[in-house]
Amino acid sequence: MRAVYLILFCFLANIPFVDAQKKGVLSPAKEEELMAEGMRYYTKGDYEEAILVWESMLPHMKEEPALYFYAAKSYAALAKPALALMAAKKAHELSPYSLDYGLFYSELLLRERRFDEMIVCLRHLSQYDESQPDVNLLLAQAYLWSEQGDLALEALEKANRWIGEYPEIIRTKQFILLKKQRLLDALALGAQLVAQEEGENLVGWDQMDVAWELSKGDSVRNAYMRLAEQFPTEGQIPLLLTHVYVQEKDFGAALGQLHAASEDRSLNPEMISQVALKVFELIDTKEKWAAALDVTQHFIQMYPQEPRFLAIQGDLYVSSQDFASGLALYLQAARLGKSKIEVWARIIQLDFELSAIDSAIVHAQEALVLWPTHGFFHFQKGFGQYIKGNVAGSLISLELAKTHLQPEDGWDVQLYSILGDVYQAQKRYRDSEKAFDYVLRKQPEDEHVLNNYSYYLSMRKERLVEAATMSQKLVQKFPTNGTYLDTHAWVLYQQGLFTEALVFLELAVADKESTSATVWEHLGDTYYRLRRLDDAVVAWKQAKKLVGENQLLDKKIEMLRIIEN
Which contacts (CB < 8 Å, 24+ apart) does range 447-455 have? Predict the structure, then answer.
């Protein structure tokens, strides 16, 4: 900062200043000359030079508010808010009757969000002219920021006497009234605006959500009915009226109002689609579902390039378990060129639901062309690749997903759960453990990780006591699940606890839904360790029936002993 600003700061703070020039009183002619010079610099936008001129005048004219006022404006133009505010305050204090000085000081306070000081300044100004519109408009802003809605309305009413009902003022009043849940008063103002201004709506679009939520009860319905007679082509009215019927769970009436609203082509299709989704939450019969389908078809015909209604129709088919039709509509919506991330996410999820894993991978890649840094699509692609056995490709996709993972994302547990399996398959055992540990820190009861983590440790014969603790959690919670019983048994087996392992393996093979060749082979190995050779052979032969060609099993049966890998 140049030294001149520090010098001027001293003046503004009322600190004694020693002028480098000879002290004395400026003549009126000299004052006028210097002031004109400063203003020339000011009007040219050369604010630094203007400040230098006024700085030279201040030692002689410390009580001149105009110097502080223009210094404040110059500081504001130079983006020095602290100095601007200090100078503006001094100007206001020296001339509290000046509207210009007080308003400028208030505007600076508004920028700094110092609303209490702003209100004090403006109320002081209003003592000299209670109905001054500029003062009251600024007061309304200060009261709004201070959550004093009634006082803000009072200030706007005073301003209104002089400047009339401008749309901006009406919208501000509506904002206050809606915030105070005075919907009927807000609607009355809106009706006044629609009547006097062509192209205006009953409620500002930025306030539609609030107005819609407040639309409930007989008095509100009656008000909307009267407004509909007064403004028959105003589509906002039936759109707002839908919520009255949604609250009353009157699906037919709500759907009728939604249909009527769509006839107003000036309405925002996004708002219509949002309301449609709320109305469709009332669907609980086939008849209602069919009626909703007809309305969405009407919307699709009205807005053929609008993907939202295709997606909504897709939602309807998915809700009826017709995944294939829903998927086709989602794809049609996505490829209109204005698709949303949520639509692509639904497409890929439906691919998985339909076991169309190749399609899931292709569609995830298609979505990544549009959103290359969207981690969830990398995750979905990687998950599909893992299912298809492409472990290397899966690892690339999943690690990209991890790179783009955001703190607010809710799929991190799923990601690290699969990463643990992929790292294990790649023999990156420490990375696998870190991924599983991440999951268990967030979800200590995660079944997939407890089972796989403990089983992988048993295969590597590492940390077997910890592995047993994890697998035991599962068998205590799911005592008949063959997969979990087998995992726990194999951990015990690797600890040399063959008798204990046998108990869980015999329970595991009793679970016909999840029994597998691996479980029967484990049972055979355990019988062998317990010197029950005949039982071991029977179990190994049963495993061979389930697994198909397996040379290791053949050798076990032929040589009547366990063949170590």
Answer: 447/474, 447/478, 447/484, 448/417, 449/417, 449/420, 450/474, 451/483, 451/484, 451/487, 452/420, 452/421, 452/424, 453/420, 454/487, 454/488, 454/491, 455/487, 455/490, 455/491
